Amino acid sequence: DAKTTQPNSMESNEEEPVHLPCNHSTISGTDYIHWYRQLPSQGPEYVIHGLTSNVNNRMASLAIAEDRKSSTLILHRATLRDAAVYYCIPSNTGNQFYFGTGTSLTVIP
Amino acid sequence: GAGVSQSPSNKVTEKGKDVELRCDPISGHTALYWYRQSLGQGLEFLIYFQGNSAPDKSGLPSDRFSAERTGGSVSTLTIQRTQQEDSAVYLCASSLPRGHEQFFGPGTRLTVL
Fold first, then answer.
1. DSSP label at B16?
2. Would you call A26 an interface residue with chain B, using a CB distance cutoff of 8 Å?
3. For chain B, which ranges sit under pLDDT 50?
4. How many residue pairs bridge chain A and chain B with CB atoms within 8 Å of each other?
5. Does A93 score more than 80 pLDDT?
6. Is B90 at the interface with chain A, CB within 8 A?
7. B60 in contact with A at a CB cutoff of 8 Å?
8. B49-66, pLDDT tens digit by residue?
9. Does the distance separating the beta carbons of A100 and B42 come in below 8 Å?
10. How far apart are the C-alpha atoms of A103 and A3, rounded to whole Å?
C-alpha cells in the first residue's frame, strides 16, 4: 500500500482558493488517487478521484503530477462548509482504503 | 434514495460484554466496508466484503472481532468480550462493484465502561 504524506493542518480565508497537497511517492501503477473529506461529527464523503490526468467536478479539481508521486486537491473558493479533514488515498477499487490522518482545513471568515 | 444506515447510533456497554453493530448498505452495492475511528484519529480499516468472495479480514485487530454479511446485503460486526480500548465510532460504507465512491453511514458510537 502506498504511503502518503499530508500536512497536519492548513488554513484558508473564505472565498479564496485552497491547494491541499499530498505526496504518495510509492504509489503503484494501477492505484487511483482518491480524495475524501470528513466534516465534523460526520462520516467521510467522496470528493474526487483520478489516475493520471487532472480531473474536475462540481466540488473540486485534482491536479496529478506527471510522475504520479504527488497530487493536489484544489478547492476553488473555500466556504465555511469546506472546513473538514481531507484524506488522500491511493488505492485501487476492490482494495481496502487506508485513510491516514489527513489534513485538517480551517476556513477563516 | 436511502443511504447507508447503521444501528444503534450509540451503544454503551460494560467491559467483557459482547456487542453487535448493524449496517444496511445501499441497495445494489455489493461492496461493504467496516472502519473504526477512535477519538481524534483517522479511520482504521477493519474488514471488506465484495459480493460472494471471501472477505478481506486483514484489518481486524483481534479474534474478538468478527463480521458477517448475510445474503449479500446487511452486515453485522460483532465484538466479543469488549475492552475499553474498543471504544470508538464504527463506520460502515458501501459501494458499487469496484466503485471509487464509498458511501458512509452515520456510524455507531461505542462506549465501553
1. T
2. no
3. none
4. 51
5. no
6. no
7. no
8. 998 888 999 999 999 999
9. yes
10. 15
